Amino acid sequence: MAGTAGQTRDTPTGVPVARSAGSAETATPSAATPSGPPPALADRHDWSDTPLGGPDGWDPALRAAVELVLASPVPMALAYGDDFLMIYNDAYAELLGAKHPDAFARPAAAVFADSWHQPGVGDVVERVYRTGEPFLESETVAPFSANAELVGGTAYTRGYSAVRDSHGAIIGMLSVATETGAITHRLQSISELTAALAGTLTLDDVARVALRYGLASLDVDQVAFGIDDGGGWRVVRRVRGELLDEADERLPPVWRRFPQDAATPLATVGSTGVPRFTSDGRPLARFAADRHDERVAALAALPLRAGSLRGAMTFGYREQHQWAPAERALLSAVAELVTQAAERARRFETQHGTAQLLQRSMLPEQLPDLPTYRLAARYDPGVDGNSAGGDFYDAFRLPDGGLAVVLGDVAGHDVRAAALMGQVRAALRGLALTDPQPAAVLTGLDRLVHSLSEESRNEELFVTVLYGVLDPATGRLTLASAGHPAPLIRRPSSSGVVADFAQVPPGVPLGLAGPRQPTLVELRPGDTLLMFSDGVVERRGQDLGAGMLSLAAAVAATSTSDPRNLCAVASAAVAGTTDDDVAVLAMEHAAAPSRSAGLLVPAEPIAPSRVRHWLADQLAKWRVPEAVIGPAVLCASELTTNALLHAGTEARVEIDLSPERLLVSVADSGTRGTVSRARTDTLSSRGRGLGLIEQLSDAWGTDPSVRGSTVWFEIMLPASS
Question: CA-to-CA distance for 34 and 407, rounded, in angstroms?
Fold first, then answer.
């Protein structure tokens, strides 16, 4: 902010006027000049060292302008005289950074030499000084420094106005800078919030995004999100300084329950739809669950209402806070975005629940329990988890004592595919209970699919099935395939563990008449059979053979033959994502019978303690080494806590002890958190969480299913036990 060097100007008041950079004249003080300068001015600067000279010779208007600048809490600067000598306050000095204090009382053109000739800088200052017309510049990045990092691109609104002396002549220009970067940042954060909410599927997702935004972008001390789910209020809260690890952030949040008629600010605003703003007081004192609620002094509560959705969000400060109109408008915009996402998530969860209910009725509730054969299965819905799929598995005892195992795939990801899958699975079990021989069963299924195809006039019905009958006494398994991939057999050998695909003729899919030749496979003690759908090995742009090799390599590399572990390994063996369903069924021929026990615990605070005592007593009775009991009890307690917190349902704890390993699993019947496959690979329980399980166990995993999810861990036993 400077004029042209060497310019002269007449001033009738005798006020010091800059003639050129670094020079000034001082005239006789005006008669209106007070006898001495205000103490504040005299104390703050040695004005005699500046071109302005001592304050006792200043025009009263100049003195008033300087006093105003120095006393202002906002950034202000006075550009005095033809050279625009810079007089500024502490707030403006912060903007100047390294240019201060050398910039004080120097010509603006020298201070801002790097940007003075850019449009909107020196030309604006000179125009205001020349014409006396004020100028307002909104939302621009002020060129306070040549170093862009110094100001970080902060946006300012700057006002320029002429300063006149006692006789009305222009003697300088006053600049006021107001930072609008905070407003700009919040507007940018709205865009980021919109993008984050666009990727949410469930109310858990919406809550997690909304809470994180409230703390990170709005800088509040506490934020809460609540929904009326018909049976009361479900509320989740985050507090500044709360310690959450990375796995916790990806897990479903922990919800608190409130009765339908709760009088909390959140419930009241959610019920009435009328926002409420409290600037000072203790708005949560009557309903405080802990000291965090008690410390809230200012609270904003915004309704979330759309269609059948009733909910609210609250934002709280621990200190008195005036909710300015602009801030209220921002919070209203946030609430509107969250409302839209929450309504969409509720519709998704309703549809997802229907799809899960359909799928639940078509898969077995439990797999058979045989003395020397252990079975496990895993099902991951494809696409977005919102549709019932066509993959299925089954295992059931036959009248003659044999065991039937089957894994099939109906093309499609809709209700129609699921309905056909249900018909095929039910027909297969009925045929097998009459005549279990694979050839007879597949022939009967072929007729069924052909009949259904003719009935619906749909020639695109595509069904593949792998079916086998096991003789538990001998380990002989008779397999036949109707266009389905051959199973993988993991087998220990003298040179290590190998995994090879069984030599089963592929046959033709159901509905297409053709040969399906049975094959005899022998499962020796220690062997594990793995049946899988094509979603396990197929990836877009990747050769199917590569996927098969990746699966075999992953299964051979795993340290245990336990079927539950192999199901988890198989589902993640091939890199990349798939839109197809993933179904896996594993059966291990154990070298010796295992011992098992189970405990059903209700969703109550003492449940983890009950599990710890029960597990410790049971393992001690089985003479499990103390080196195994301690870690097992600790991990089981963590898993139980995790299940009760995040699913909110009762949990079933099961233990299975073989001569080689101890397997502990905790299953819940909740569905929240199992929609997206990406979230089933995390584990934590508001404390030690995933790190604890990884450190204390030899293997662990999650088994998402249509009935909820199961988290398990495995600890290998010492060789001497």
Answer: 100
